[in-house]
Amino acid sequence: MYTITDLKPGRAVTLDGQPFLVVASQFGRKSQSKANMQCKLKNLKTGAVIARNFQGSEKIEEADVGYQRVQFLYGDDEQGYTFMNLSTYDQFPLTAETLESSKGYLTEGLECDALMFEDNPIGINIPSTVVLTVQETIPGVKGDTATGGSKPATMNTGISVNVPLFVNEGDKVRVNTETGEYMERAND
């Protein structure tokens, strides 16, 4: 059990049976009144952010969250996305809504971390960079340079990334998953 002074950013708590991550917290006390902690909490299942004020002697339950190493196997928006736990080899599906924007970076065999709550997967943390293959783009022209500009390219996962003019179909490129930007050609 946490006290209000334990509610620091990055801590996971359980409220009404739901797991929340403390995003921000500020301790306060007004003259003779009890101490309080104003917190911004992100629901780890739905992604909703709420504000909550905790009073001095209130006890808050610690959330049973952790990470397990998993591998993406296959999937799409209709059937769901299937992952395999790398320590137990158990397979489990996650919906497109659960994965949000990260599904555009999932490639077969990609290893990532599954966020677990009460031994059930509730989300995925993908690596900060992934290697994707350019599936469709306008052809490069002789003389195009790395500093010359960019063009849109559709990746093998279906997302669109702006790439330099010299990148062609079939090239492997490294993409930043946090910004969605091209980083470099990949040799993998």
Unreliable sequence segments: none
Span from first to last CA? 46 Å
CATH superfamily caption of the largest domain: Nucleic acid-binding proteins
Biggest beta sheet summary: 5 strands, antiparallel
Textual characterization of the structure:
By secondary structure, the chain is mainly β. The protein has 3 domains: 59 residues, SH3 type barrels, CATH 2.30.30.30; 61 residues, OB fold (Dihydrolipoamide Acetyltransferase, E2P); 57 residues, Nucleic acid-binding proteins (OB fold (Dihydrolipoamide Acetyltransferase, E2P), Beta Barrel). The chain is built from 1 helix and 15 strands, in the order ββββββββαβββββββ. The strands form 3 sheets. A 5-stranded antiparallel β-sheet has the order 4-3-2-1-5, with no helix packed on it. A 5-stranded antiparallel β-sheet has the order 8-7-6-9-10. The longest helix is centred in the middle third of the chain and has 4 residues. The model has no long low-confidence stretch (mean pLDDT 87).
Entry summary:
Helices cover 2% and strands 51% of the residues.
